[in-house]
From TrEMBL:
Keyword field contains Cell membrane: no
Protein name: Arsenate reductase ArsC
InterPro entries from the UniProt entry: Ptyr_pPase, Ptyr_pPase_sf
SMART domains given in the database record: LMWPc
Top-level taxon in the UniProt lineage: Bacteria
Family annotation (Pfam families): LMWPc
Organism from which the protein derives: Cellulomonas triticagri
Length: 137
């Protein structure tokens, strides 16, 4: 069986999609190919999202916002949008999910923690759907 792949997409690729990608990388132990992108990528990752992830032992400081490409969508088995579903290209045979999550942009750490925790729960459910046993954390 080939390695499943997931693409997380939000507008800026600076908060929600980066946290989701960080959780999926960590919890899949490399069993899932992980991508993230934004329809209008920011210049840098939201520093509060970075801090929130560091609190749970996941370091996303080296990540950079990336632009959403047709190739990234085509190369992914599952495409998960977070508030930007209309701009994501749709291809037959791909699985699409839209996760309605609050936007952490401009929020303090107290507001970002529950968003982070909700993302973690959804990533754990995604792993179960993909037949991948979560590791660690």
């Amino acid at each position: 069986m080939s390695t499943p792949s997931a693409l997380f997409v939000c507008v800026q690729n600076a908060g929600r999609s980066q946290m989701a990608a960080g959780f999926l990388r960590a919890l899949s132990g490399g069993a899932v190919e992980v991508r993230s992108a934004g329809s209008l990528p920011a210049d840098q990752i939201n520093p509060v999202a970075v801090d929130a992830m560091l609190e749970v032992g996941i370091d996303i400081r080296a990540e950079r916002p990336k632009v959403l490409t047709t190739d990234a969508v085509q190369a992914s088995d599952v495409v998960i949008t977070m508030g930007c579903g209309d701009v994501c290209p749709v291809f037959p045979g791909k699985r699409y999910e839209d996760w309605a999550l609050a936007d952490p942009a401009g929020q303090g750490i107290e507001a970002v923690r529950p968003i982070r925790d909700e993302i973690r729960g959804r990533v754990v459910a995604l792993l179960a759907d993909l037949g991948v046993e979560p590791v660690g954390r």
